[in-house]
Every structure is written in structure tokens, then in C-alpha cells.
Fold this sequence. Notes:
This protein has 402 residues and is mainly α. The protein folds into two domains: 2-215, Cytochrome c-like domain (Cytochrome Bc1 Complex, Chain D, domain 2); 224-376, Cytochrome c-like domain (Cytochrome Bc1 Complex, Chain D, domain 2, Orthogonal Bundle), CATH 1.10.760. The chain is 32% helix and 3% strand. It contains 14 helices and six strands. It has helices at 2-12, 50-61, 73-76, 150-154, 156-159, 161-165, 171-183, 186-196, 204-215, 224-229, 238-250, 313-327, 355-358, 365-376, and strands spanning 95-96, 103-104, 140-141, 147-148, 266-267, 290-291. The strands form three sheets. Strands 1-2 form a two-stranded antiparallel sheet. Strands 3-4 form a two-stranded antiparallel ribbon. A hairpin with a 6-residue loop joins β1 (95-96) and β2. The longest helix has 15 residues, at 313-327. The protein is globular and about 60 Å long. The termini are far apart. The chain binds heme C (HEC) (2 copies).
Amino acid sequence: MKFTQVLMITTLITCFFSCQKDFPDVANPIDGEIIDINNTNNTGNTNTNTNMVELGRMLFWDPILSGGKDVACASCHHPNFGYADGRALSIGVGGVGLGPNRQDLSPGNIGFVSRNSPTIINTAFNGMDEDGQIFPSLAPMFWDNRTLSLEEQALGPIRSFEEMRGHAFDEDVALDSIVNRLQENAEYQQLFESAFGNTNAINPAGIARAISTFERTIVATNSPFDQFQAGNQNAMTQNQIRGMNRFMQVGCDDCHSGPMFSDFELHVVGVPDHNQLDNSDTGANGTYAFRTPTLRNLDETGPYFHNGVGGSLQQTVDFYRTARGFANGGPSGGGGGGNNGLSVNPNVDRNEIDDDIRNLGNLNGDDIQEIVDFLRALDDPDFDRTIPQSVPSGLNPGGNIN
Length: 402
Ligand code: HEC
Ligand code: HEC
């Protein structure tokens, strides 16, 4: 069973935030239900408590959650950039500006994060299997699947030095310090009271619950592809339909499978390292494996791959032509030693590359163009793009992003 595998793999992975299970289980009651993602009312969010959604929205936008009160979740997950940040690598603490213009003004550049910010859109569906089943409490998070569930994920950035905490306090007191700040804020007292019925919920589990409930409302499931699936033959262009067929024929869907176009599992594909990073990113458990990302809503969430080295969608899909060739021992897929027996990433032996890359069908320039056209049919720009006018702390919504 896929989810037991995911569970086993992730517990083996080096612990970052995920080992600190110091907050109560906030498992979602709909665990294991079949979710129809094309029914836009069915987001996997059984929590229809709008007060909790609005509290979560405030927490998501309020830099009060960061040590220096300068970074919010929205600094790196902003609706103007498809709830990602439009950057190859994110900048947290000490960052000023938004998206590609954001600069790290902190001494020693502490806010430089070594990975690309993934979108929040449709993270409600992370872990969804081919039948459309989801287990929200086991939903894999991060490029290396090291954390399960949105609830558990939400507390990670607050503890993280580069993302939000900075020098303000030590990691082990980070959550308590933030809880104290919220407890002292009259507006948050009121918001927690309306969402949970009491102010005792101003604790890490309550914060995580509210943020996740908000995140589960950020969904986009009515793309041209979804309309096509629902029977509207005209929703996709002929090129997109050809691209969809190529996508399946060459075997992209061996990993990009199911309603989310992801198996949510870890694979070694050999994406090259980002040249500005001092150390090679070795992925999950040092294996160079990363999680298959969803292919929905790519239009606004570039650049691509775990470190943003995929500039355009064209370039990103073209990577597979080289990856396939090198994995098979030569640029053209024949013998001949290709990249000296290495994959596209010189730190990864070609024999380590996933068989599903080696076995991809041949890809020529036309195939790549058609596949890119098809990927554009997976975009649904109609998601909640609300930017709050103000947040309870009185700080700038989204942090130092202006
Ligand atoms: C400094 C930028 C930054 C900030 C601030 C930030 N994130 Fe992220 N977020 C990232 C990056 C980068 C990753 C991927 C990290 C990795 O995979 O190791 C990520 C991953 C995630 C994921 C996993 C998505 C997936 O599909 O795996 C979620 C959910 C998320 N962030 C939510 C949040 C929330 C909630 C907050 C605020 C409490 C927040 N982020 C603050 C940059 C940021
Ligand atoms: C072996 C499994 C596998 C196969 C086969 C595969 N992919 Fe991927 N795909 C991945 C993984 C894993 C990543 C993330 C790699 C990384 O960031 O290091 C990825 C990333 C991507 C991305 C970047 C998405 C983003 O948000 O950053 C695109 C686009 C993509 N794949 C398209 C394709 C296409 C098109 C094909 C077929 C030509 C394909 N993939 C075949 C596993 C696979």
C-alpha cells in the first residue's frame, strides 16, 4: 500500500522539524475518504468553520509569527506568484521585497533558503492516490516528503532559522514565544475564541489547525483539462490533446499519475544542483530522491524543480530528453558513455536514476512543445487571491514585501 510505504520512507528520513511531535494529533476526520476534486465544493476540508479559515488567513499573512516580525508565510507563498514566490531559491529572514525582486539584506545572508518554494494551491490534496483517496494526516509535505500533514508542516517554518525565526530566539522556545505574542494580542484572543470557542486554543496545535484549515481552501480544480474530463470536448486545443497523449505514451504518467499528476513518491531523476549553493542538495535521506510534484497550476509557480533550475516550462520538460539519454549511457539514448557514466547531475551515477526515466519514450522537439501545451491545460487561475488589508499585529500583511 502506497501510504504505508510513504510512512516507512519518511520515518527513515533524517529528522528536521518532523521529529518533534510535541503537539497533539490534529488528524482530519475525513481520513481515507474518496474526494472528487472536480467537485469544487469538495476540497477535502471538512472543516467548514469560516471563522477558523479567517483566523488561518490572518496567521498566514501576519509576520508576527516570525522572530524579527518581518516574514510571513505569504512572503514566500504569495497569490501573485501562484502561492509560491517566483524565485529559484526562497529568501526568508532579513528579506525585503517580493518575488524575483526580493533581496536578502540580513548580515551574513541568513534568510537564504536552499530550496524552491512549492505552491500552497491544492496542497489539500497532497498524497491523493489514483482513486482520489486522501489521508490528510499522512499527506506528504516538502520536496523530500520529510513531514506528514499540513498541520505538522505549518509549525516547521516558524522554528526554522532561515525561514522565519532568525536570531530572535532559540529553536526550542520559538513556538512558545510566538504563542505568548498571540496570547497578548486582543484581536487574536477574539479570533481564536470565535474559531475554537475558547482562547486555550492559542497553542501550537491551534495555530497549526487554523493555518491548515485556511490552506485547504486554496484550491484550483477547474482547469481546461478538468472541463475536458467532464465532457467538454472543446475545453482543450488539438495540440493539448496531442500533448496529453504524448505525455501518457512516453511515460510521464508513470510518476505524474492520478488526479494531481503526482504519485507523491520519491524518485531519483538527477536534476542538477543550483550553482549558488555551497553544498549539493542530496534530497531525501541523502539518496538524491525528491518527491514528484503536482503538475497543476504550473503557469504561475515557476521556476521549477526543487531548486528552481528549471527556468521555463519548455526548458523543464526538455530536461527529460537529456536525463533519459544520460541514464541510458549516451546523449541520444544509445551506448557511448554520455556524461561519463553520470546522470545530468554529476553527483549522481546514472545507475541510480529511476527506471521510469530510463524507460521514457523518445522525445523530440515537437513532443516537448505539445507536452508543454498540455501542461498549460492543467492551469486554473481561479483560486482565492485575497490579500488582507491588515493583520491583527498591525504589521504589514505578508511581511517586508513592499
Ligand atoms: C522563506 C520562505 C518561506 C516561508 C516564510 C514559508 N515557507 Fe513554506 N516553504 C518554503 C520552501 C522553500 C519550501 C520547501 C522546503 C523543502 O522542501 O525542504 C516550503 C514548503 C511548504 C509546504 C509544503 C508544500 C508541499 O507540497 O510539499 C507548505 C504546505 C508550506 N511551505 C506552508 C508554509 C506555511 C504555512 C508557512 C508559514 C507558517 C510557510 N510555508 C512559510 C518557503 C517558505
Ligand atoms: C521517475 C518519475 C518521473 C517521471 C517518469 C517524470 N517525472 Fe517529472 N518529476 C519527477 C520528480 C521527482 C520531479 C522533481 C525533481 C526535482 O525537483 O529534483 C519532477 C518534476 C517535474 C516538473 C517540475 C514541476 C515543478 O513544480 O517544479 C515538471 C514540469 C515535470 N516533472 C514534467 C514531467 C514530464 C513532462 C515528464 C515526461 C516527459 C516527466 N515529468 C516524467 C518525477 C518524474
